[in-house]
Structures are given as structure tokens and as C-alpha cells.
Design goal:
By secondary structure, this protein is an all-alpha fold. The chain has one domain. The protein has 6 helices and no strands. It is globular and about 45 Å long.
């Protein structure tokens, strides 16, 4: 796979994961219904937590579909990538709550890998991704997300440096 193609996949994964963050910053509490409706599990901890909202998922779906269309990949692949990214993000939140970590707590690796690996796996056939391509996009997203978080924190666009 060419670098250009890998770049397009990385853009989609970034848009899918970044859209909810931008929506939260832009809209505040507006339409911020948590996906888990405040449900607690048998362990006394939230199922997912208050930061996982329907607004975030819908913004991810819309923004990634538009980005995929602009990148000439078709809006359908954008929807698939966004669904997989949000599934990975929700899985991460579920696991973090089971580990006793509060919403928005740092869990390096768990915060980046599922939300980038799952979209690559789900779209591998359609986008022609091989195992090395998947690993390259996932590792680039992993490092890029950490670096970008620090930059956004220094620009006062994030409350925490992660």
C-alpha cells in the first residue's frame, strides 16, 4: 500500500476519533446524553461513564462519512470506520471503568489502540490493508494521539495533557 493510501486511512481514523472531542468542546452540555444513561454495573462502577454520548457517536459518523467522501473513498467506508472507532472507544471506556479508572482517566495504549486498530481491521478488505499496513496506521495513530494531546493541552484546548 502506498503512503498516500495509508495517510487517507489515518485521516479517517483521526476524524472518527476527533469529531466527538470537537463536538464536546463546541457544544458543551448541549445534547450530551450519555450512551449508558447513567447505568452502573454490578461492580458499582458506571457502565461507560458520562463522557460517552450519543452526540459524540453521531458527530463521528457524520464527520467521518463526509471525510471519506472528500477523500474519494465513499461515505460508506466512513460510516464503517466511525462505527469501528466508536466501538473501540466504548470498549476502552468499559474496560477502564472495570479497572476502576474514572471517566477521562489516562490509560496509555488502551486509549489509542482499540479505536484505531478496529477501524483498520473492519475496513482492511475494502481499503486493501495488509497486516503491516494495519500495524503502521495503528502505531502512527498511537504516537500521533499522544503528541497531539500534549499540543492541544499547551494551546489550552484540552484540560489534561493526555
Amino acid at each position: 500500500m502506498h503512503w498516500f493510501e495509508l495517510g487517507r486511512v489515518l485521516i479517517l481514523v483521526t476524524v472518527a476519533n476527533g469529531a466527538p472531542v470537537i463536538a464536546s468542546k463546541a457544544l458543551g452540555e448541549f445534547v450530551s446524553q450519555p450512551i449508558d444513561f447513567g447505568t452502573f454495573m454490578f461492580d458499582g462502577r458506571p457502565l461507560l461513564g458520562p463522557s460517552k454520548t450519543f452526540r459524540g457517536v453521531l458527530c463521528s459518523l457524520g464527520a467521518t462519512a463526509i471525510a471519506a467522501a472528500i477523500l474519494n473513498l465513499g461515505w460508506e467506508i466512513g460510516i464503517a470506520v466511525a462505527c469501528a472507532a466508536m466501538a473501540g472507544d466504548l470498549l476502552s471506556s468499559f474496560l477502564k471503568r472495570r479497572f476502576g479508572l474514572p471517566a477521562s482517566a489516562r490509560a496509555t495504549g488502551l486509549d489509542q489502540i482499540p479505536e484505531s486498530l478496529l477501524p483498520c481491521i473492519i475496513s482492511a478488505n475494502r481499503l486493501g490493508l495488509g497486516i503491516l499496513d494495519i500495524l503502521m496506521v495503528t502505531s502512527t495513530f498511537f504516537v500521533g494521539e499522544i503528541v497531539l494531546s500534549l499540543i492541544l493541552y499547551r494551546l489550552h484546548l484540552r484540560r489534561r495533557p493526555y
